Amino acid sequence: MTRSGQEYLEALRDGREVWLDGERVKDVTAHPAFRATAASFARLYDLSADPALRPVLLKGGVHRAYAVPRSYEDLVARRRAYKLWAEGSYGFLGRTPDHMASGAAGFAAVPSVFTGEGDGGFDGAEHALALHRRLAEGDLFCAFTLTDPAAGPGAGDDLRIRVVEERAGGVVVRGAKTVGTGAVFADEILVGTIEPLPADDIEHAVTFSLPVDTPGLKLISRTSYEQRARSVFDQPLSARYDENDALLVCEDVLVPWERVLTYRDPATTAGIWWRTPAYLNFVHQSATRFWTKLEFLTGLAILVARSNGTDRLPAVTQAVGRLLGMVAQAKAFVLAAEASWEEVDGGRGGVRPGQEISFAQRIMAGELYPRAVQDIKLLAGGGLIQLPASGRDLLHPELGPLVRQYVRTPGTPAEDRIKLLKLAWDALGSEFAGRHEQYERFYQGAPHVYHTMQTWAGAADDCEALARACLDGYDLGTAK
Question: What is the DSSP code string of 157-206?
């Protein structure tokens, strides 16, 4: 079953321990640092109530992201649901609930992967299936954090999440994880490790999912761009779509056994992402969102060029053409990953997007986004810099007439121009925009990691064979 946006917001009022600027946040749905973004997530949930949208968003009464795709057509249907939600935030909410929902579906496709062979032979297969059911049936928002704190020489090994005690009712964990994107707004948070662990590092080889209000679990928020926004008119994106990133700290948190997915098994702890479709499902969702975000930015560039009266200049039309080409590239990667689908577990686990294309999308997106932002900045010109400090200037009895007179362009009244350029600045040049550029660069991990992975996931042997065939087609005798 699906829940309404209001039901989602009510679930966030659970006493969770969220900290910002040295103060504990009592209610994220009411606090000025989080309330508008929480409302934006709520609006996504409300889309399921629209009879015209339900066939796109839902399958079997739950969001399509939870369904294990069984065919190419299922992948296409799932992408259409992703696209609809991505358009709800113009691509700026990167970790909407359908992201981890797709990961949970990946787990459910091959639960046998969770039956580890490590110390004690922990079997998390039923727990993984229970996680999938719980999230799907409750229509829950599950965030995740998989990144360890940066630890320099001599920092010791007490920063990372680790098991410090085993009890009859579960395990006690202590430590931290970073970059918990969207965790402040989630119902649950999955904690684990996606990178390979040394074979003897059983202490840190644990994966679990907990309600965000679990005692001892703290979320320490970064700066809130939403809170810093003066108004929606002045910062229309950061005022509504700041999904936030938080440091997760566990202070002797008890994790019930039924919430543990992997335990004391380094190979399985990392393998649940790579030996199931979970990670490729992530890429499917994020690639669709990235495509949507480039569509928005390109549309913004077109509007700015028209407002400037430069849209018919050859250099500008060429620049817009380059941007439209980038949009087409982003779209092509999504469609190609679907078209190159692969069976999972001999077909028993359904199908997944093609790995080679999915992995390549990570390279494309990290390189393309900064180029798109730079191109649009060049199109916008100095108008992004000289803007009234606030929309209040337009409403002021003395300043308003002056601003309306001198900040207009032919065919574009001052209010419309200021509104457009403030949106452009928030997307391209604000602190919020800077976070998004860095976010897209590292969304799928560090480049040196995914470049290396592409080497073994790509068709290196085929490429080499084609070049070798050319070499083998002639010899020194042809030099005569």
Answer: S-SB-EEEEEETTEEEEEEEEB--TTGGG-SEEEE---S---TT--TT-E
Same domain, 253 and 318: no
Nearest partner of 146 among 9, 318, 239, 282, judged by Cα = 282
pTM: 0.94
Same domain, 301 and 449: yes
The pLDDT of residue 154 is: 52
Chain-centre distance of CA 358, in angstroms? 15
pLDDT of 335-352, one tens digit each? Answer: 999 999 999 999 999 999
Contact 29, 9 (CB under 8 A): yes
**pLDDT for the residue 52:** 97
pLDDT, tens digit (0-9, with 9 covering 90-100), for 154-176: 555 679 999 999 999 999 999 99
Write the single-letter amino acid at 467: A
3-state secondary structure of 92: coil
DSSP-derived letter for residue 96 is: -
CATH number for the domain harbouring residue 430: 1.20.140.10
**Together in a domain, 429 and 416:** yes
Of the candidates 322, 210, 199, which has an alpha carbon nearest to the alpha carbon of residue 270?
199
Residue 231: which domain range? 5-274
